[in-house]
Amino acid sequence: MPKESFIKRYGLLIGTGLVVGAAAVLLTALGNPANMGFCIACFLRDIAGALNFQRAGFDAEAGTGIVQYIRPEIIGLVLGSTAIAFAKKEFRPKGGSSPMIRFIVAVFVMIGALVFLGCPLRMVIRIGGGDLNAVVGLVGFALGILLGIAFLKKGFSLRRAYQQSMAEGLIFPVLMVGLLVLLMMRPDFIIFSAKGPGSMAAPVLAALLVAVIVGILAQRSRLCMVGGIRDAVMFKDFRLISAFIAIIVAVLIGNLALSKFSLGFVDQPIAHSEATWNLMGMVLVGWGSVLLGGCPLRQLILAGEGNTDSAVTVTGYIVGAAVSHNFGLASSATGIGTGPVAIAVVVGFVVLAVISLMNMQKLEG
User: Fold this and answer.
1) What is the mean pLDDT of each run of 10 residues along the chain (365 residues)?
2) Is position 363 within any domain?
3) pLDDT digits (tens, 9 = 90+) for 293-316
4) What whole-number distance in Å separates Cα of residue 255 and Cα of residue 268?
5) pLDDT given for residue 58 in this prediction
6) Where would you tag: which of 72, 94, 186, 251 has the fewest CB atoms within 10 A of its CB?
7) Assigned domain for 48 exists
8) Is the pTM of this model over 0.90?
9) Among 306, 327, 303, 328, which Cα is nearest to 316's?
10) CB 133 within 8 Å of CB 268
11) What pLDDT does residue 365 have?
12) Measured between alpha carbons, how far is 10 from 15 in angstroms, rounded to an integer?
């Protein structure tokens, strides 16, 4: 393949992956939790806590818990996507593609992510940091994607979306601006952790700026953790998976340079070593994300472009985070949650199977 052709085909995606990986290392160096420069699941969970939807580790005397914070990274990703979508005339409000099904699937995707302790993006960041538990998660993620692909090949579809009004498409980005205002003003009714992962954060403006840049690149490159494996299996297209690999490489180099790389299963930051649940949690994430048409990062970017189905999906993630912590389903560094984790994961598989079977369209030919 000529050099120019390779650059044209892979350049933007590999470049985006390297920037995302470097940004994750930078945000961790600036104060984010270790191996959590970016984590869509964890950050949406923190926002749910800040809005008082969950009170994990809550101390009544201090009036705060351990995972409550309005993460500017989420806001920046969405607003970066919105800005570049408008600039490129790609802000096209649409929705109406089985929104309630998407909401339910998103709830279970978040439950799976918090059993594992991370979204697909954090999974690859953890791999770059030497966390072998995340490799187990990657195996589960790939298995879940293969399950989803099997249904796609049988005709699974959540049906078409329809054009919507500009006001409808702007609601989600405007909500992000509202969250930014709350973050800057810090009113008493918003909860901010004084200890634990929720208290570990890069400076607001730095995190926001970095996330805006990543949001712009993710929108232009169509970066998606699920899409990489799906496209490689279904179409022998390795463009998206090249970004996946680039993130790992950038994080690995950054951690080695900062002496933060630690290879192994034990004593990994904000992670547990219960292999069964690392695997099963990410099977749920992979399968559900294929049904939704993209990973949590991709859903945020699409919501920034005016896709209201993705906005509903992100809302489902937030509800799933609240459910996970309020019912003891979320894991911690000491292991899986104290609630009915096995029941929740099995129910998730059953729900996804029913949704997959009931939404198969007849294939022509």
Assistant:
1) 71 97 98 97 98 90 88 98 98 97 98 98 98 98 97 94 97 98 97 95 98 98 94 92 96 97 96 98 98 98 98 98 98 96 98 97 60
2) no
3) 999 999 999 999 999 999 999 999
4) 13
5) 85
6) 186
7) yes
8) yes
9) 303
10) yes
11) 45
12) 8
Distance of CA 77 to the CA centre of its chain: 11
Task: Give me the residue label for tokens 């600036």.
Answer: 30
Q: Which amino acid is at 338?
A: T
What string of DSSP letters covers 24-84? HHHHHHTTSPTT-S--HHHHHHHHHHHTTS--TT-BTTTTB-SS----HHHHHHHHHHHHH
The residues pairing with 307 across neighbouring beta strands, listed in sequence order, are 94
Q: How far apart are CA 357 and CA 355, in angstroms?
A: 6
Give the side-chain half-sphere CA count within 13 A for 80. 25
Q: How many domains does the chain have?
A: 1
Q: How long is the chain?
A: 365
Q: What amino acid is encoded at 252 in this protein?
A: L
Domain extent at residue 208: 3-358
Distance CA 138, CA 254 (A): 21
Residue 364 covered by a domain: no
Instruction: Give me the pLDDT at residue 361, please.
Output: 81
What one-letter code names the amino acid at 38?
A: F
**Domain assignment of residue 365, yes or no:** no
pLDDT of residue 193: 95
- Rounded to whole angstroms, the Cα distance separating 175 from 203 reads 21
Distance CA 58, CA 49 (A): 10
- Quote the CA–CA distance of 337 and 174 in Å, as a whole number: 34
Q: What gap in Å lies between CA 321 and CA 304, rounded to an integer?
A: 21
Q: Are 319 and 107 in contact (CB under 8 A)?
A: yes
246 close to 306: Cβ distance less than 8 angstroms: no
Q: Are 76 and 291 in contact (CB under 8 A)?
A: no
